[in-house]
Write a structure and sequence with these properties.
With 149 residues, the protein is mainly α. Helices cover 52% and strands 5% of the residues. Strands 1-2 form a two-stranded antiparallel sheet.
Length: 149
Amino acid sequence: MVPLSPLALSILADCPKLGAHVFSALSALRGGTIPISGWSKFKARLDPLAVKALRGLTGDSEATIPPWRLHDLRRSAGTYLARAGVDRLVISKILNHAEGGLTQIYDRHRYVAEKRRALDLWGERLEAIVEGREGPDNVVSLEAARGQR
């Protein structure tokens, strides 16, 4: 169970609903919808669109985005949550890492409230970055960039 932050819920509310799964695709073979697989193929299509959007926002026709992997997003979230003081066990539960040893047998707590607090914190951080309220100097506020066009 992953308790979604208000930011995640608002993003999902704006996504088209194609089927029973959060991320569904139309299947010509099955005549309906299927869960999305092949995330690397989607990312390969996303990268050129992101570069095009960046170039449009900045006006820099040579702008590029450094290579990245989808797994980098998990690493960034986990690292930020640790830096923000979230317990390592809660981060592990959010990232759905398997536990070993006797603890997994005896600890049946689902950590829903703890995961919710951590993911709300992560959502607030992402909103602050996107809105330009905080972030390093190399982060461009999308709203500010749109206003400069």
